Amino acid sequence: MSSAIRFSHPGPPDVLRLVPVERPEPGPREVRIDVAAAGVNNADLLERRGHYPVPPNAPSGLGLEVAGTIGAVGRDVTEWRPGDRVCALVAGGGYAEETVAPAAQVMPIPAGLSMVEAAALPEVACTVYSNLAMIAGLKAGQAVLIHGAGGGIGSFAIQWATAIGARVITTAGSEAKTRAALELGAVEAVNYRTDDFVSATLAATDGRGVDAILDVVGTTYLRRNLECLAHDGHLVVIGGALGPVTFDLGELLSRRASISATLLRGRPAHQKAAIVAGVIRDVLPLVESGEIRAVVDTVFPLAEADRAHELLESGRTVGKVVLETDHHH
Ligand SMILES: NC(=O)c1ccc[n+]([C@@H]2O[C@H](COP(=O)([O-])OP(=O)(O)OC[C@H]3O[C@@H](n4cnc5c(N)ncnc54)[C@H](OP(=O)(O)O)[C@@H]3O)[C@@H](O)[C@H]2O)c1
Questions:
Q1: With b meaning 16 or more CB within 10 Å and e meaning fewer, what string describes 203-228?
Q2: Which phi and psi (to 5°) does residue 319 adopt?
Q3: Residues 7 and 65 in one domain
Q4: Dist. CA 111 → ligand 1 center (Å)
Q5: 55 pLDDT band (50/70/90 cuts)?
Q6: Contact at 8 Å (CB) between 115 and 84?
Q7: 34 three-state secondary structure
Q8: Which residues does a 6 A CB cutoff place in the pocket of ligand 1?
């Protein structure tokens, strides 16, 4: 037997319980990981409240990213061996002592990283890379607007974009978060509660606008985001308020701009494999050299997943919340 966090009905954080579960068995192209640490994501909060479209065939239980040691490999896995220290993107079941992951979604842990730091990496690295590098094509010398600087995603996106040589403008809802964003490399950090991000973005780019926007706010920002885009710019939406919104298509046409929206968890296996391969090639070396890191706010024991959810829900965090099992040493 093994243990995992489960909930029997949607509700507040205290529905989460550590319970005994069957030990998961890896399929032919999967590995079983002895989980040392698991990242907590906004999607987990939504799923716990019953508001998340869980993809069909996703493993049971919350948890989209883990770090640990490979315990067993499936019949057709040749690239990983028991004992390897890895982190992985999983489609569910990460809040557990053991979980299974497709071999193509497993990454080596960069030298020098703790299990906790490694568990905070897969979701932010894959989301930022797939959107800003693969979709928006962000390059050195370009400008990017990153909303939600205090979040796990925002804090990583600022560092990655800065590390590749882009100029980062960012938004957050408090002075503590805008200060942290400047320390991570942003050239301009706007407190959206007191200042207008459109005029700040245009001022910071001499009126030209930005080449890419990473958006976590959704419908209410759509029109203002378009005003910030430079010619040939890309708006990549990854979350926030969804629903009908009207905007002037001419704003896109005149700028030759594009809008995309993606959810990492539901992407087909071949797309996730391509994203993970890109992250291993282009992002992990920057982590290994110490240039960038996933920012960790607080660590809780796995059994206290309810407290971890309460903290992430409070909006007080800068960076990620991570759960740790008894295997973390
Ligand atoms: N599509 C995907 O594949 C994908 C993958 C991972 C995450 N996501 C989504 O991306 C978002 C960020 O994830 P995360 O892990 O970074 O979450 P997080 O750690 O909870 O951070 C969200 C951040 O957004 C800030 N924020 C909220 N409203 C804002 C606004 N109007 N303007 C600027 N910032 C605002 C929040 O704090 P302040 O308001 O205090 O600044 C907070 O710092 C979530 O919605 C998540 O569901 C999507």
A1: ebbeeebbbbbbbbbbeebbeebbeb
A2: 95, -155
A3: yes
A4: 28
A5: confident
A6: no
A7: strand
A8: 41-43, 123, 127, 147-148, 150-154, 171-174, 177, 192, 216-217, 238-240, 262-264, 312, 315, 317
Hey, is 279 helix, strand or coil?
helix
Q: How far is residue 147's CA from residue 143's CA, in Å, rounded to a whole number?
A: 13
Sheet holding 210-215, edge to edge: 188-191, 167-172, 143-147, 210-215, 229-237, 258-261
Index of the ligand 1 atom closest to the CA of residue 148: 34
Residue 52: pLDDT over 90: no
| Alpha-carbon torsion (7, 94, 276, 219), positive or negative | positive
- CA of 147, closest atom in ligand 1: 33
Query: Where among 261, 286, 308 does a domain terminate?
Result: 261
Are both 167 and 231 inside the same structural domain? yes
Name which of 119, 44, 100, 99 is nearest 322 in CA terms. 119
The residue nearest atom 40 of ligand 1, judged by CA position, is 173
User: For the whole prediction, is pTM greater than 0.90?
Assistant: yes
Last residue of a domain, one of 231, 246, 261: 261
CB 163 within 8 Å of CB 186? no
Residue 329 lies inside a defined structural domain of this protein: no
CB 101 within 8 A of CB 268: no
Q: How far is the CA of 151 from the centre of ligand 1 (A)?
A: 5
- Percent of the chain at pLDDT > 70 equals 99
- Residue 328: pLDDT band by 50, 70, 90 thresholds? low
Which residue of 41, 42, 175 sits with most ligand 1 atoms within 8 Å of its CB, as the best mutation to test the pocket? Answer: 42
Report yes or no on 27 lying in a domain: yes
Closest CA to 1 of 32, 22, 17, 24: 22
Tens of pLDDT along 214-225? 999 999 999 999
Mean predicted lDDT score pLDDT of the chain: 97
- Domain encompassing residue 162: 125-261
Positive or negative torsion for Cα 138, 139, 143, 144: positive
Residue type, 203: A
